[in-house]
Write a structure and sequence with these properties.
Helix content is about 45%, strand content about 20%. It is α/β, with parallel strands linked by helices. It has an 8-stranded mixed barrel with strand order 1-3-5-6-7-8-9-10, surrounded by 6 helices. A hairpin with a 2-residue loop joins strand 2 and strand 3. Helix 6 runs parallel beside helix 7. The longest helix is centred in the N-terminal third of the chain and has 24 residues. The radius of gyration is 28 Å and the shape is globular. The N and C termini lie far apart (about 120 Å).
Length: about 280
């Protein structure tokens, strides 16, 4: 009997503890715990990817102030319906240019390149072609492989070096590797190739004045304005674009100029204008 009543008393004492806390304190504690949870969730899961969420869910009209829009494609876009793409629009304007991946390293050819290259011209797009650079492989060998697979024509955009992976290269080695590729390709086509890279990579590794002679295609996603302050030709502003004729996402780009400027920038046009100018004199 004594043991039983002792156990009952213990149980009663254990049940009294929560009831001794004021209701306002419970509310304050609950709000505090929820606030901490929300802060942690935002800090670790929302804030680092806010620009990406912005690209998916809102602000579809940016960047403002540009009228010449284009896309860049590779085998990741799969089979493209070029009839639909030809009549597709971005921000109520036609798609004017299409960049496409051709090669990577010294032995990789994008499986859709040849078809994309042909279809882009057949459907009246200004076309551009890029090589994805491998830091572990010879830049000269990569340039020669690109030239073997890609045969640009008058009216095409200058060739593009896509350099965005550092690997184990030092900043000085990155500089020399990029210049080696650029010079081989420039000697072949007689035009300055375009350098494609992301905003941070440009600031870290392509700030040497030797690169000032080359036009830039900068990747900087989900911002209203490109923060790079130097001269540039193209801006890849999202990898979450949607256009008719392509299933899934596609990169969207803008050209920094008019349609007339873009046409003048293509292979062959600049030389023709110079010849006409000399003849008129």
């Amino acid at each position: 009997m004594a043991k039983t009543s002792s156990k009952k008393r213990k149980k009663k004492r254990s049940r009294k503890f929560p009831h001794n806390i004021p209701h306002w304190a419970l509310w304050v504690g609950g709000i505090f715990i929820v606030s901490v949870y929300v802060f942690v969730f935002y800090y670790f899961f929302v804030s680092p990817y806010s620009f990406r969420w912005k690209g998916i869910f809102g602000n579809k009209g940016y960047p403002a102030g540009y009228s010449i829009h284009g896309i860049d494609i590779s085998h990741h876009q799969g089979e493209i319906d070029w009839d639909l793409l030809r009549n597709a629009q971005l921000y109520d304007t036609p798609i004017r240019f299409v960049f496409m991946k051709a090669t990577e390293g010294v032995d990789f050819l994008d499986e859709n390149f040849n078809d994309n290259f042909y279809q882009a011209r057949e459907n009246n797009f200004i076309r551009g072609v890029y090589h994805f650079f491998h830091p572990k492989e010879s830049p000269e060998a990569q340039a020669r492989y690109f030239l073997k697979q890609v045969h640009l024509e008058d009216g095409d955009l200058p060739p593009v070096l896509d350099f965005e992976k550092r690997g184990t290269l030092t900043p000085d080695q990155i500089k020399h590797a990029a210049i080696a590729w650029l010079r081989v390709v420039e000697n072949h086509y007689g035009v300055k190739p375009i350098i494609y890279t992301n905003y941070d990579f440009k600031l870290k590794y392509f700030s040497d004045s030797i690169f000032n002679q080359y036009p830039y295609w900068i990747a900087h996603y989900y911002v209203d304005t490109l923060q790079y302050t130097g001269p540039w030709k193209f801006w890849q502003h999202t990898d979450r674009g949607r256009v008719r004729g392509i299933k899934g996402f596609v990169d969207l780009d803008i050209y920094n100029g008019s349609m007339y400027d873009l046409q003048r920038f293509t292979i062959g046009r600049h030389e023709e204008e110079e010849e006409l100018y000399l003849e008129s004199d």
